[in-house]
Amino acid sequence: MHTALAVLLLAAGASRRMGGTDKLLLPVDGVAMLRRQARACLEAGLTVTVTVPGPAHPRVTALSGLAVTLAQVEGDDGMGGSLRAGLEILPKDASGVMIVLGDMPGLDASDFRRLARAHDNAPHAILHGETEDGIRGHPVVFPADLIPMLRGCKGDRGGQRVLAACQARVQGIPLPGQRAIQDIDTPRDWAAWLAAQTSAPSTRSDRA
User: Does the keyword Zinc apply (predicted)?
Assistant: First the structure.
């Protein structure tokens, strides 16, 4: 169990490009996408903090019963605001933080375990999930000494400023297929993802 590495699952966005549908509540493996992501992180043996828009939001209900900590995000400062809210309540003894996006349903517990093992072996590196052909994506692990810099991030660029300043410390961790870059932003993305699931057998080693 990778207890020193903490997950920050970002789930406070407005889902504006989905035409009125909350993408994080769409069903994946029979449960809301957000719940499935949180459960997969827990199954990987990680402590999980989830950013949410507010205490009465349906996403909070979707997480009911899971051993996660909720961070309420006030204002509208994009990913930077979510990062700051979540990092404020992250375990103080965390050896690093794995930033996980709530809208990437292709990721599963085996991917989170792979990043956690890589962090165990290289605790001072920034670790990027990447596609099998080397395209950078998510999740991203930042070591503990960079968390203060992450707290200064603003706007939707999130941790990009930290990555740009610390390129020498970045290592890619290959994940199967293209799952490291497959996110759901629009109804078209969702339709394409669903079509891909029905047209090919699953190769996942973990089912959350």
Answer: no
Share of the chain above pLDDT 70, in %: 90
Domains and CATH numbers, the chain: 5-199 (3.90.550.10)
**Burial (CB count <10 Å: 0-12, 13-18, 19+), residue 15:** buried
Residue with the two structure tokens 């990987």 = 44
The whole-angstrom separation of Cα 4 and Cα 1 is 9
Quickly state the pLDDT bin for 206 (edges 50, 70, 90): very low
**What is the three-class DSSP state of 163?**
helix
Taking only the tens place, the pLDDT of each residue in 57-67 is 999 999 999 99
Residue 130's contacts (CB-CB under 8 Å, 6 or more residues apart) are 136, 137, 172, 173, 174, 175, 180
Q: What is the rounded average pLDDT for all residues in the chain? A: 89
Q: Which is it for the CA torsion 26, 31, 32, 37, positive or negative?
A: negative
pLDDT of 208: 37
Residue 190 has φ and ψ, to the nearest 5°, of -65, -45
Beta strands in 73-149 (DSSP E): 96-101, 126-130, 136-143
| Cα–Cα distance, 99 to 72 (Å, whole number) | 16
Question: What number of residues does the chain have?
Answer: 208
Residue type, 165: A
Contact 177, 106 (CB under 8 A): yes
Note whether 114 and 138 are within 8 A (CB): no
